[in-house]
């Protein structure tokens, strides 16, 4: 089994970040292949998945790695993408050979399909953990944009970061993201993965709302990158169960089993 020390992990993260910020999705897929993404996914998924997916969120890049994670966990090797459940009872495939479309997101090569087989619980859990890290990275990207704006934008002769209302929004955002990260760190079971994805989706949606308020009208403009992160959040939240759907599923599970399992030993 491959083991990377702290220095090697930092070097890998820097290389991945450069690949995600300088190339297209097709080029990123190729770069991930050269970096041994497939081998890392098999040998050390607990390191590779959080690293790659969080960086995707932070950089705003995208690649068909979610399909890789789900196919690996489901034991379905092969080049054909697997239909993924999407919010509202539809199914989509992440086709790495297709052009971005308008069916789900104009930036992502997602297309709606008519049917698909049910995924095993292990595959759903693996995909939800990966999406949770992606949502977390996206949330931190939005928070960085809002924080920078709050420090630079001045009203009444001082930065708006000094205003209590702005500081409360940014603080609530950070608390939500930190809580989601703690949940993801303990998502070792199927139920844990479900709750972690719901927590990350909720945190990202909270972040989108607060950061939009901090940025004001600037955040609505096509020139600013916030709206792309918000749109990405909405799409990722819908994949493999939305925050609302997963929360309802968790409540149903607890009600029918008449117990709430301990997910983390603190």
From TrEMBL:
Coiled coil: none annotated. Pfam families: Acyl-CoA_dh_1. InterPro entries: AcylCo_DH-like_C, AcylCo_DH/oxidase_C. Keywords: FAD, Flavoprotein, Oxidoreductase. Residues 115-242 form the Acyl-CoA dehydrogenase/oxidase C-terminal domain. Signal peptide: none annotated. Gene3D superfamilies: Butyryl-CoA Dehydrogenase, subunit A, domain 3. It comes from the Bacteria. One of its GO terms (molecular function) is acyl-CoA dehydrogenase activity. Transmembrane segments: none annotated. This is Acyl-CoA dehydrogenase.
């Amino acid at each position: 089994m491959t083991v990377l020390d702290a220095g090697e992990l930092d070097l890998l993260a820097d290389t991945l970040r450069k690949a995600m910020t300088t190339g297209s999705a097709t080029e990123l897929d190729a770069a991930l292949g050269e970096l041994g993404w497939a081998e890392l996914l098999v040998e050390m998924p607990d390191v590779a998945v959080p690293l790659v997916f969080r960086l995707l969120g932070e950089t705003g890049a995208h690649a068909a790695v979610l399909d890789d994670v789900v196919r690996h966990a489901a034991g379905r090797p092969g080049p054909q993408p697997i239909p993924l459940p999407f919010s509202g009872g539809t199914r989509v495939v992440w086709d790495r050979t297709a052009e971005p479309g308008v069916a789900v997101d104009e930036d992502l090569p997602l297309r709606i399909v008519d049917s698909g087989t049910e995924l095993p619980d292990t595959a759903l859990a693996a995909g939800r953990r990966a999406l949770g890290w992606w949502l977390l990275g996206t949330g931190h990207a939005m928070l960085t944009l809002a924080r920078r704006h709050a420090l630079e934008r001045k009203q009444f002769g001082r930065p708006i970061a000094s205003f209590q209302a702005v500081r409360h929004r940014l603080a609530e955002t950070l608390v939500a993201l930190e809580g989601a990260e703690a949940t993801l760190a303990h998502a070792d079971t199927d139920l844990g993965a479900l709750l972690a994805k719901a927590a990350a989706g909720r945190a990202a949606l909270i972040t989108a709302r607060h950061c939009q308020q901090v940025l004001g009208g600037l955040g609505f403009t096509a020139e600013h990158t916030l709206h792309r992160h918000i749109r990405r959040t909405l799409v990722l939240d819908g994949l493999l169960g939305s925050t609302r759907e997963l929360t309802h599923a968790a409540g149903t599970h607890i009600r029918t089993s008449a117990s709430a399992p301990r997910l983390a030993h603190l």
